[in-house]
Amino acid sequence: MLHYRHRKPQIHVLSLDPILVADIAGRLHDEPQMKGIEVITPHAGHKVTPDQIDRMARSTTASWVLILDVRSDTLPLLQPAYNKVVGYNRADFNFLCYSLCIADGPATLFQYGSGVEVFALHLARFRLDYSPAAFFYDPFLHYAHDERPRRGLDFDAACFDRLPKRLAKQLGDKAGTISEVRRFFRAAEAASDRRAKVRQARLKILTDMLRRRLAEAFPAEKNRLETFLSKEGFPVPGETLPLHLYPLFFEDWVADLAERAAQARLRDR
């Protein structure tokens, strides 16, 4: 299989969601460990198309880290492009480059009686399809069955901006659109010299909210709640790929994977 040994300090972000793309790019831009690493995103504007992602597929062979949005609503539209991305990079995954997946959860996640074990098949599927070094479940992408957006080939990007009802309740007076919530938690409006401090304070608000949500959703896991919130992630029974929560430790993971790719390149010379 072909190896791409001339990779550069680049990260590709592949998603149809301009709000998530902006959040990832903003977080990585402010991360000191990412200095000197280029973040490549779709030319979004207000809308990203599957064709744009498809045209980016070949260029992913020059990057150290590939961030793939594999949520259930848009994955069917992106599958042909992702098949190309995986085909080009599979020989280099977890050696010269790394993939990282962000997604919603299983459709049965909030059904009565379901527990965290429902993530096992979900994680196994993405582990086999994309060989991710890390999988991040994003609660802000996960809609209950009766509130799932209906999307087609010409879906409106505004569909991405609706906050799931259960999280609106948890956020209280901080609830708004997805765009507003993401900007709040990454402290986008704060001055650059204060942003890290403001973001840290807001991270505590987010972590406390997620802790309450996890206790409510998975009462059987109450003794292991902090594992969900750790950098190491939650070890789902029956699956080798841990479960992480976006955006907790997301920037740290991306920076670590970029460093691994950089070290692999040096060893491979």
The count of β-strands is: 6
What percentage of the residues does DSSP assign to strands (E)? Answer: 5-15%
Shape by Cα distribution: globular
- The amount of helix comes to 25-40%
Order of helices and strands: EHEHEHEHEHHHHEH
The number of helical segments is 9
Radius of gyration from the CA trace? 18 Å
Which parts are unreliable, with pLDDT below 50 for 5 consecutive residues or more? none
What features would you describe in this structure?
The chain has 269 residues and is α/β, with parallel strands linked by helices. It has one domain. The chain is built from nine helices and six strands. Strands 2-1-3-4-5-6 form a six-stranded parallel beta sheet, sandwiched between helices. Strand 3, helix 3 (75-89) and strand 4 (98-103) form a beta-alpha-beta unit. Helix 2 packs parallel to helix 3.
List the helices and strands and how they pair.
Blueprint (H helix, E strand, L loop, with lengths): L9 E5 L3 H12 L8 E3 L9 H7 L8 E5 L5 H15 L8 E6 L15 H12 L1 E6 L27 H7 L6 H8 L9 H23 L7 H4 L14 E3 L4 H19 L1
Parallel strand pairs: 1-2, 1-3, 3-4, 4-5, 5-6
Helix pairs in contact: 2-3
Summarize the structure.
By secondary structure, the chain is an alpha/beta fold. Helices cover 40% and strands 10% of the residues.
Identify the notable features of this structure and list them briefly.
6-stranded parallel sheet; 269 residues; alpha/beta
